[in-house]
Amino acid sequence: MRKKKAHPLLENILITDYAAEGKALVRHEGKVIFVSGAVPGDTVNIQLVKNKKDWAEGRVVSLVKPAPDRATPFCKHFGICGGCKWQMLPYSKQLQFKQQEVQQNLQRIGKIDLPELLPIIGSERTEAYRNKLEFTFSNKRFLTAEEMNTEGPVSAQDALGYHVPRIFDKVIDIFECHLMDSVNNEIRNTVRDLAKANGWSFYNIKEHTGWLRNIIIRYCSTGELMVNVCFNYDDETNRNLLLNHLLEKVSNITTLLYTINPKWNDSIYDLTPQVYHGNGYLTEKLEDFEFIISPKSFFQTNTQQAEKLYRVVRDFAGLSGKEVVYDLYCGTGSIGIFLSRGAKKIIGVEVIEEAIEDAKKNAALNQIVHADFFAGDVIKICNDAFFATHGQPDVVITDPPRAGMHEKLVLKLLEMQAPTIVYVSCNTATQARDLLLLSEKYTVEKVQPVDMFPHTHHIECVVLLRLKNKD
After folding, report:
1. pTM, entire model
2. Which domains does the chain have, with CATH numbers?
3. Percent of the chain, pLDDT > 70?
4. What is the rounded average pLDDT of the residues 21-26?
5. β-sheet bridge partners, residue 199
């Protein structure tokens, strides 16, 4: 069997630029190298992991000389946990690179005329900004390099925390997470301590054994706190012991649930969480609008920034009170409801039935009677008969998942010819692809990046499109 050729180690390489998706860039001997774990200005030693003719990918194996403005990471788990990979970058630099990525993607992939991008809207909070976190129990704890090189037995293997990036069966034992108020640490560490004291089994993902699987925490700006503990199978005695202990130790829990998940995967969309304490849902606020969040609801995970994002959408929509607004991929109806006071009618479409049920509840909660929500595939629902029944759209709001819009929907939008489209995206690469298709009949008038996730490379972007004058 032929031996694989080892990829070279490049030493004393000065990182010169930012590429995209959190990777830095350097040009070395005529080749572009994309580097993980570095920032522009760093001098590093790089181990190549892919080596093609014109480009390569590498990872930093050692930092020779840090960039002058490199920041000190604030989290003890930095470098192992993949959640906040940009802690070594000052926040102002993070915003600069995110703005640059939006510009490059829309120009390079979109290949269309663009207005000058509006300055990115940064987050006032760069820590404790998330309202939802999920932690995993595992009987395979990720071991640090120091532990691997230590002689003798390694300490306990059970862990409660985040999955290691690109390693499906190992979990980092997280003791302190800065993504949410410290209540997340109190909940997670309380459960871990009790589980270990009682010898309860942590989940084994390969063998589908073990009792404890996940903890899902939601913490709203209203102060309401939801915890959902997921088990592989039911054990009523120990389950009640755990849940009662959690209520005793964390007094501000307003809703406590448990979910029995006997499946091989961790998703709970097709399961029924059981209410143990409280009313089974939370109420969140954006401006003076209220939103019910049930255990399986999708809601923007940065409440403060979601409010800013929705204000941009509302401003771009430019409503006068006469418009029929279609909110596609509407989720629980939050954008449509946020815009409702300026619209004649809101029509929301979403494939997840539970989300539509929440959207209807949210409309009723906010006393909005001119909003209708429909469950189903956007492509199948938005046909000629649907438009004939509910009216041709004056404004279309589209907020698709990371994969962007299906080409059939883009073609349907071109056919519908709504005067205004506001496109909200969490992936500017697929957004740019769709904008290129829409450019047949639309021009881009405004582009507004919004940072929803500090210390990560993720970026939200809102684009305003106007229908071109018909010949």
Report:
1. 0.91
2. 1-70 (2.40.50.140), 95-125+302-467 (3.40.50.150), 132-286 (2.40.50.1070)
3. 96
4. 85
5. none
Nearest to 417 by CA among 378, 390, 387, 389: 387
Nearest to 41 by CA among 93, 79, 92: 93
Task: Please say if 177 is a catalytic residue.
Answer: no
| Identity of the amino acid at 90 | P
Question: For residues 324 and 336, what is the distance between their CA atoms, to the nearest angstrom?
Answer: 11
Alpha-carbon distances, residue 118 vs 103, 312, 404, 450 (angstroms): 10, 11, 22, 10
Sign of the Cα torsion 312, 315, 316, 320 reads: positive
What number of other Cβ atoms are within 10 A of residue 329's Cβ? 20
Tokens of 387: 């438009």
Write down the pLDDT at residue 430. Answer: 96
State the catalytic residue, choosing from 84, 177, 426, 461. Answer: 426
Ramachandran class of 318: left when φ > 0, alpha when ψ lies in -120 to 50, beta otherwise: left
Q: Given a cut of 50, is residue 1 above it in pLDDT? A: no
pLDDT tens per residue across span 104-135: 999 999 998 999 999 999 999 999 999 999 99
